[in-house]
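$ fold --in a.seq
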Amino acid sequence: MIGKIIKGKSFKGCISYILDKENAKLLGGEGVLLNNTNSIINSFYMQSLMNPSLAKSVGHIPLSYSKDDAPKLTDAFMLKLAKEYLQAMGIENTQYIIVRHSDREHPHCHIVFNRVDNNGKTISDKNDHFRNEKVTKTLKEKYGLTFGTGKEKVKTHRLKEPDKTKYEIHKTIQTALKSAKNWNQFRDTLNKSGIELKFKYKGQSNEIQGISFAKGDYSFKGSEIDRQFSYSKIDYQLQKNSREQSQEISQTKLDYSFNQSSALENAGSILGGLFDIQPSSSDYDSDREEYLLQQQLKKKKKRKGLKM
């Protein structure tokens, strides 16, 4: 289960797109006239006039599920999940419709809601991307839905802008974080792919508060691309890479020193052995031994002659 939050200005464009899809099925709605597409559009538009200062009053959330969950995702269950999602996100006391589409291999539906509630107040979107991830995870755990393996499974060739650029940036950041040991190396890798890195500073100070990435006509905060791409988390990963590299270098030096020491010890043993060789039996000289024996006998005879 994945939710994607979109904000827009035109109820007509959004609702027409959702309801005019082939085999689109209206699962439910609240606070709108469901007679036809025009009556739904007019209902949303009239309520948005209660808060004309809100530029983007259209709330649009596609909810997508794994194709592995298709057998259990009946219309009734999909409607139940969408309503629970809205409640958990704090999208209450306002108009909405829930429409199921069948144009993809994975089950999905679209929620359109009015960001101007029934009292004319704006429904807060504070931290809505973080809350969206938390809510979808909770619902998956609650109902035993399939957890995906991440953005790697996304079929990028089917993405439209700005999502296509967002995923291109995501992939490049992942690659850069595998090897970069500092911010300069990280920035260089991004620049090679045409991605610009920008820091957000606190006031007029040098304290970094956030980070964003831009490519072409699109720019995204790090946390909008992935929760792991905030400034603090990227900085932590770069420092970790640097520490690991330092440890590898130290270990390599230690191994080299040990190997050099062992080599010297082995050489010393070999050289020492060369100067500590004992004579073998092949060095025995029988003639020299006989000569020495005769000389000793002569000395003894002389000593006896002197005594007599």
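$ fold --in b.seq
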Amino acid sequence: MNSRLISIIRKEFIQIFRDPRTLALILVMPIVQLFLLGYAATTDVKNVPIAVWDQSRTPESRALLDAFRSADYFKIDYELRSEQDIQTLIESGKIRAALIIPPDYSRKLLENNAQVSMILDGSDASVGSTALSTANLIGQSFSIKVLTEQAARQGRASAVQQPIQVRTRVWYNPDLVSAYFMIPGMIGMILYFITALLTAAAIVRERERGTIEQLIVTPIRSWELVIGKVVPYVLLGFFDTMEVLLIGHFWFKVPIRGDLGLIIGTSGLLLLSSLGIGLFASTVANTQQEAFLTVMFTMLPSIFLSGFFFPLDAMPKFLQIVAGIIPLRYFLVIIRALLLKGVGAAAIKNEIIALAIFGVVIMGAAALRFRKRLD
């Protein structure tokens, strides 16, 4: 590495550490995003507030309510006296569901013909669908328990055995903790967007201040300027990666089952794409605001079509095709497989190849365009 390139890298680091906003964006923002997404952006549905209209008020109905209370999914906040109260509470958003137990519940239960009603607020489809399936499971489990107790009293316990039993096993994430899905994705998000934003803003800042013209008239070659401006953000990107990995592992208990060298290597491939996007944004923008808007233009498609929040298989075929040109989509498959499944390179070779191709093409095209603008 020659002295001119070292001088550019040193100059860029000095500018970064002199700017508290940039430094906070690099060091603090990943931690803030990690905790926000780790705790707030969760697909786990728990403590759904419900109301109960128990018209039976018998030991049998109280046993059913205990079954709902014992599950973490529901929290009984209100005991009602009329059906009108249900509509009022749901419309005000105070409850998401209401359980109605009819007056003849106890008698019907003895006849094995008891029915209860569950009214759900469907305005939030994700919560509503989860509450619906959970309520059905609680009802089935409680029914089996009642049948077992009745058969045991009559001395025919074998009569309530189910003809088919489905025994489930969950690999890699037995408790289905959503943070295990979100935290690996955060590594990709941080690498992809923070490095792209900072690279674009750093180069445009030189143009705004007029210092880039001073650099051009020096003996520094254009490729040295490109590399010198990019290298600091590569190093800081790897620092953010390790920061998120450590916090995710020790705080959120996300496992790291894959090879650490492979994790860092594939992260470097994603950096090629993100830094290329930052370089490209710097060639079309004249101000830092324009640079941010240019990078943000690529952010929304990457968030929604990368599989970060929503599964790609559930999307229309056209959007799945569009997702094929988003580098982040391949990295998320890689990082989740490495952290949670502990696979080797052979299992994710297609994604690694695709990510490498995107990185080289995007970075190469952006660097050539940047050099032409300097000439």
